[in-house]
Each structure stands twice: as C-alpha cells, then as structure tokens.
Amino acid sequence: MHTALPTQVNIHEAKTRLSQLIEQVEAGGEVVIARAGSPVVRLVAVAQPRPRRVLGALAGHLPSPGDYNAPLPDELLDAFEGH
Q1: Could you tell me which residues are beta bridge partners of residue 41?
Q2: Separation CA 9–CA 7 (nearest Å)
Q3: For residues 38 and 5, what is the distance between their CA atoms, to the nearest angstrom?
Q4: Cα separation of 33 and 41, whole Å?
Q5: DSSP assignment of 13-64
Q6: Cα 11 to Cα 18: distance, rounded to the nearest angstrom
Q7: Which of 5, 20, 61, 83 is deepest in the core (most CB within 10 A)?
Q8: CATH fold group of domain 7-43
Q9: Its function (predicted)?
C-alpha cells in the first residue's frame, strides 16, 4: 500500500492558503508547516466524536416474542452442546 507524502509548506504560504490546506486535511491529507525549510508543525484534523448510543432507544419499536426468556427445547440445547 502506498502512503502519500505530506504536503510541506512554509509559514507564509500556509497563511495565504490556510482554507485550502484545511480542506486538504479534512479530506484525509497531511500538511506540514515549515520555517526556513525545516518542519515545525503538522496540521491535523480534530477527531469527531462518535454519536452517543442511548440504551433503550428502540424500546417498543421492535417486536419480541412473549416467551423469549423461556427455557430452550431439549433438542436445541443438545445441538448447542454438541450432543
């Protein structure tokens, strides 16, 4: 797998093209900002928080059999236990 090299720009160019560089990073690219040709900082995207999962959010929306907690038939238990 080939990984693209980061884009390196000097500070003046970074100030001039900041919006474009931010779009590049948001699209998965990497930007290194340099001073006099020496890398100084890396521009990275902020990790977006994952949506919170709410327990019970689907309560009452999915059908469930009334006997879901009943013991399994012996044949089915034997199959699970390899008999």
Answers
A1: 33
A2: 7
A3: 16
A4: 5
A5: HHHHTHHHHHHHHHTT--EEEEETTEEEEEE-PPPPPPPPP-TTTTTTTS--
A6: 10
A7: 20
A8: YefM-like fold (3.40.1620)
A9: Antitoxin component of a type II toxin-antitoxin (TA) system.
